[in-house]
């Protein structure tokens, strides 16, 4: 009962670890059953990839003895994404990384462990006895150590929107029963459908920025381009000659003039003020 173990990272990303692909002879149990692949819970449906996928999100909770087919999806998701967890997450941070990790606040929260669990209490350079050194090292390798303390003050509580503030979004975003916070599209990928409308603008290269000007027009710019508002001119960079070029949106000719940077450094980013009169240039060496 005093032996505490944690799952290795492979439990959350490596499905092959549960398969005896090399057909090693792992022996026979007392009931005559030969050991082979790892026997998975019923909710994994015998699929190691499904086990990893679900375990990655819901494995931190205790599995039910006889789960229904959708028990792990509904109950675990509701438990991990509910407002109660969000509102009390800062308390866990205080225990593990915060001010309740050491000192009197740790005693008040019953968050006190063996003295070798604390990194500041162990200095191998001061241990001369090899037996004591090996025993201490073995203890730490077996049980681990408490993470470094990151916060000295209580961590702020997350502000969870009320149900009334999320009502307008319920027609667009799926909401888990019992959870007032809206869920984003990647929480319900099975509901995504291709749009029947034509795109606003088609680009053959990656989009770098989408800007709406004062006239309500939507301007789509490729990467390494910034718009000089309120005009429809843009600056672009990233050429082999390390130049900055001026162009007109929608102009098929492209750049209409060439501005020399007079620098041996490569331009990595650019930004301009709201009126488009001042341009800031970031160089490879951090210069502007």
Tally of helical runs = 6
- The count of strands amounts to 8
In the predicted model, the low-confidence regions spanning at least 5 consecutive residues are 59-75, 163-181
SS-based class: alpha+beta
Question: What is the makeup of the main sheet?
Answer: 4 strands, antiparallel
Kindly list the characteristics that best describe this protein.
288 residues; 21% helix; 6 helices; 4-stranded antiparallel sheet; alpha+beta
What does this structure look like?
The chain is built from 6 helices and 8 strands. With 288 residues, the protein is α+β, with helices and mostly antiparallel strands. The protein has 3 domains: 73 residues, no CATH class; 60 residues, no CATH class; 76 residues, no CATH class. The protein has a 4-stranded antiparallel sheet, with no helix packed on it. The longest helix is centred in the N-terminal third of the chain and has 14 residues. The termini are far apart.
Topology of this structure?
Layout: H1 48-58, H2 71-81, H3 83-96, H4 103-108, H5 130-143, H6 163-166, E1 207-212, E2 218-222, E3 225-228, E4 233-236, E5 244-248, E6 255-259, E7 267-272, E8 279-283
Antiparallel strand pairs: 1-2, 3-4, 4-5, 5-6, 7-8
């Amino acid at each position: 009962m005093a032996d505490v173990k944690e799952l290795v990272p492979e439990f959350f990303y490596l499905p092959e670890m549960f398969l005896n692909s090399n057909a090693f002879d792992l022996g026979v149990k007392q009931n005559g059953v030969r050991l082979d692949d790892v026997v998975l819970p019923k909710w994994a449906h015998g699929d190691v990839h499904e086990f990893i996928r679900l375990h990655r999100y819901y494995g931190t909770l205790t599995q039910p003895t006889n789960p229904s087919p959708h028990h792990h999806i509904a109950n675990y998701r509701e438990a991990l994404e509910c407002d109660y967890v969000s509102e009390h997450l800062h308390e866990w941070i205080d225990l593990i990384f915060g001010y309740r990790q050491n000192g009197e606040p740790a005693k008040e929260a019953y968050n006190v462990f063996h003295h070798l669990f604390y990194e500041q209490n162990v200095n191998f350079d001061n241990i001369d006895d090899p037996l004591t050194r090996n025993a201490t090292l073995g203890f730490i390798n077996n049980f681990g150590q408490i993470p470094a303390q990151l916060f000295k003050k209580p961590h702020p509580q997350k502000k969870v929107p009320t149900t009334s503030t999320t009502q307008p979004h319920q027609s667009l975003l799926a909401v888990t029963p019992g959870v007032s916070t809206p869920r984003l599209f990647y929480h319900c990928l099975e509901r995504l459908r291709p749009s029947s409308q034509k795109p606003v603008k088609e680009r053959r290269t990656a989009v770098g920025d989408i800007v709406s000007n004062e006239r309500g027009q939507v301007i789509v710019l490729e990467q390494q381009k910034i718009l000089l508002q309120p005009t429809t001119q843009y600056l672009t960079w990233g050429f082999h000659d390390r130049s900055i070029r001026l162009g007109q949106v929608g102009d098929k000719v492209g750049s209409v003039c060439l501005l020399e940077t007079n620098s041996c450094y490569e331009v990595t980013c650019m930004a301009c003020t709201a009126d488009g009169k001042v341009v800031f240039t970031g160089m490879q060496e951090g210069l502007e």
